[in-house]
Amino acid sequence: RVVKAGDVWVLLPHQWILCLYQTDILESMSCKDSDLTTFWRSQKESPQMRKCPALWHSLDFAHPSQLPLPFALHGDSAPFLEHDSVHVLSMRCLLTKKSVAESQLLLTCMPKLAAVKETWGKIMECLSWSFTVLYNGRTPKKGFEGQAADGPRGKPMRRCVLWAITGDLEFFASEFNWP
Predict the structure, then answer these.
(1) pTM over 0.70
(2) Geometric angle at alpha carbon 57, from 55 and 58, rounded to 5°
(3) Beta strand 69-80 with 105-111: parallel, antiparallel or unpaired?
(4) Quick one: how far is CA 163 from the chain centroid?
(5) Residue among 15, 6, 42, 4 nearest 130 (CA)
(6) pLDDT tens readout for residues 122-154
(7) Helices (H), ranges, the chain
(8) Handedness of CA 1, 82, 107, 50 (dihedral sign)
């Protein structure tokens, strides 16, 4: 197998949210404030909340429109050509009422044979950085690798939280080394 360096395009989660917000689509792609309040109150005793009590204390139930939107990162693979498959990463709001076809936001897609282990590690680092930007609720001042950030810098933005990782068994096996 010959390995060559190349670019991988990733649509960053925080850029998706900024775009959806600026075009007045975010609310229709996510949920109503009442759904957010109900969801976050139901999560008080969840394992994620117990590991991150600072998140619970940051929730402002008096201002539901300021509650973070919970998202799921979804990984899936599908057959591609005769001897390969395509690995796809996408995200969607956990509380959306829209169908998957209408609400799933593509992050990246690549034939598995075109990637090495380091490729997916770098993609996951980049996505982690972007989800951290969403958690902090401010546009980044610098890009993922320290370069000047695109768009507005240091401005408030809709806060979101990566709350679930979903996928098929092949995704979990390849990404997390499950048997």
Answers:
(1) yes
(2) 65
(3) unpaired
(4) 9
(5) 15
(6) 889 999 999 999 999 999 988 888 787 777 788
(7) 13-22, 26-29, 33-42, 47-51, 53-58, 100-103, 117-136, 169-176
(8) negative
